[in-house]
Design a protein that fits this description.
Chains A, B: GO terms for molecular function: DNA-binding transcription factor activity; transcription cis-regulatory region binding. Chains A, B: It comes from Nannocystis pusilla. Chains A, B: This is TetR/AcrR family transcriptional regulator. Chains A, B: Keywords: DNA-binding. Two copies of one chain form a homodimer. Chain A is mainly α and about 200 residues long. Helix content of chain A is about 70%, strand content about 0%. Chain A is built from nine helices and no strands. Chain A has helices at about 15-30, 40-45, 50-55, 60-80, 90-105, 105-120, 125-145, 155-175, 180-195. The longest helix of chain A has 22 residues, at about 60-80. At the A-B interface, helix 6, helix 7, helix 8 and helix 9 of A face helix 6, helix 7, helix 8 and helix 9 of B. The structure holds a DNA duplex (30 and 30 nucleotides).
Chain lengths: ~200, ~200
DNA sequence: TCCTTCTTTGAAACGCGTTCTACACCCCTA
DNA sequence: TAGGGGTGTAGAACGCGTTTCAAAGAAGGA
């Protein structure tokens, strides 16, 4: 059961850290960012407040940590049911749709996480950097067709742009300006702009 | 002297609001987000704390309000010295470079503002929406060549994508992951991807 | 078994965003 | 000239993120 540390990512061997994260998720699910009071997190996970701070540098750090949980879930999802689209562009859009769905399915939690990620604290940089590369790998793997060639440098650049669009729009979603559907639609539109209408296989 | 309210934007006729904003800018310049203590803002601007909260809904709201000041400055700048680039793509990149420069020139202030904007609080949506449309207009006006045609719907979509990239990268900058030069460079790269290498006039 | 070192704990304390309260002031109308 | 509504002020109070500290365990090594 003890997970072998996933490459380039938060090692969750630490039982306490896991319990703390789980508690944070539960609290965030019901009441969002402000409902995650660290005193409550500590109590709900059965540790002392100091222990929470030993594992996570701040409230934002804790919530960003939730991302690595989501990442594991997404990896499994894509492994068990690969994307169906005929072209790479199609699969790409489906991929972002799935990511968006995952984050927006539990809106309070999603908003809390994105808000934390967007804070731009220096202390979060490391964790976010790790998440970013892991996400990139995940996407690259997910949109790669059965007998596709490798992903070119050009495509990586496009991907980076799309990730930026996705992130910005998610922030728009957390602000109540956009619905999840709009987020996906606008990422799709950006993808079409980048790939040309054809979506070159 | 009393400014006529700028179209679609924070009306700064209110003297107190202006003083509060100025004080916030001064404090943010020296010490960033955390140095903007609302008690200090109130004192420095010669009003009571309650008055600050009468004008601005939160600390973030206040700092986002600074954006409308910057906007005025940018408008003047672009009016007095129009962008020089030969193609629209070139002017576009110059425009984003100027925007980035403006925000990053006073790093503490810039970071504080972006951090506030990225928080994604519902209460900020209105102000940010206004800023967004105003910025869009500003860019459209700035990149429009002397005898250019109007900006097409396609170009507006491209612009929206670039703004997203810009925003995301700025967040990366506030997190210490990117330098201002990298921000500009990556927006430029995205622009080239969107416009094709030519930059179709 | 005792000593050392590291972690965890419980609880208090601090700082600051935010809210609330009581009071003064100003302008307007009767 | 009196009264009243809206705005500003001073200051206290509240909530919660974050830090700090003394004491209690827990794990290893001589």
């Amino acid at each position: 059961m003890t997970a072998v540390p996933l490459p380039g990512e938060l090692t969750l061997v630490d039982d306490r850290a896991r319990r703390i994260l789980d508690a944070a998720v539960r609290l965030a699910e019901t009441g969002g960012f402000s409902a995650v009071r660290l005193r409550d997190v500590a109590q709900a996970s059965g540790v002392a407040l100091g222990t929470v701070y030993k594992r996570f540098r701040s409230k934002e750090d804790l919530l960003v940590g939730v991302l690595s949980l989501e990442l594991v879930a997404l990896r499994e999802r894509f492994a068990s049911e690969p994307l169906q689209g005929a072209t790479r562009l199609e699969r790409l859009v489906q991929c972002f749709a799935a990511l968006t769905e995952t984050l927006c399915a539990r809106p309070h939690l999603g908003r809390a996480v994105i808000r934390s990620a967007a804070t731009g604290e220096n202390a979060l940089a490391e964790r976010l950097q790790r998440f970013h590369t892991a996400l990139m790998e995940l996407i690259v793997g997910a949109i790669r067709g059965r007998d596709d060639g490798p992903v070119s440098a050009l495509e990586l650049e496009r991907l980076a742009v799309l990730e930026d669009v996705w992130f910005s729009r998610l922030v728009g979603w957390t602000g109540g300006l956009l619905t999840p559907e709009m987020v996906v639609e606008q990422v799709a539109r950006a993808a079409r702009l980048l790939y040309g209408e054809d979506g070159d296989a």
